[in-house]
Amino acid sequence: MTSGPRNNPRYKLIFRTAHETLAEMALLYEPYWKARDDIARTIISLSSVIVALTVSFPTAMSPSTSTCWRYLLIAGWLFLLLSILTALASLWQSQRAREIASALFTPKAENYSDTTPEVTGDAATELYIEIDRAVGPPAIADVCAGKLLRVSFVLFALGMICVGVVGARKVLS
């Protein structure tokens, strides 16, 4: 029985260290991910309530209301709905980012040398590339989740401004 690449002591050390580092990263970022998810859920809830309340009071869409105010209200609804969609996408990407802790469960080790006790040269490069491939998608998902949440917040603010202006006009008239 030959000693396979996974029995290579240097490979095991590098792989174990990579696992431990990824687990530590997941623990370090967990409070940030949780806070970001809470903000996304809050935006979803508030946007949903605002759309539901404004749709249920049809006086803003009455024939006596000018077209400009109707379009402003519709724009507000669209901003709020887009805010909900981008917040949902942020939550989805955030879940993908959490996969970083399990990114290296199934390594591809067929190209590693099993004749030397050290992983050097091409074998070390291959191991680095494999770790990078495993960590890359969750890291990209984390960046995406943050950007989507910022877009969601801007859309929410625009929706609130539009709906707020229409509401203020109704109250003051």
Describe this structure in words.
Helix content is 76%, strand content 0%. With 173 residues, it is mainly alpha-helical. The chain has one domain (5-172). The termini are far apart.
Task: Give the SSE map.
Blueprint: H1 9-56, H2 67-97, H3 121-172
Measured between the Cα atoms of the first and last residue, the distance is 88 Å
Note the overall shape. rod-shaped
In terms of quaternary structure, the protein is single chain
Mean pLDDT: 79
The helix-and-strand class reads mainly alpha
Please write the string of helix (H) and strand (E) elements. HHH
Low-confidence stretches: 107-117
Main sheet, how many strands, which sense, barrel?
Answer: none
Helix content: over 70%
Strand segment tally: 0
What's the domain count?
A: 1
C-alpha Rg (nearest Å): 26 Å
Percent of sequence in beta strands:
under 5%
Please give a handful of descriptors for the protein shown.
single chain, 173 residues, 3 helices
Give a short overview:
The protein is an all-alpha fold and 173 residues long. Helices cover 76% and strands 0% of the residues.
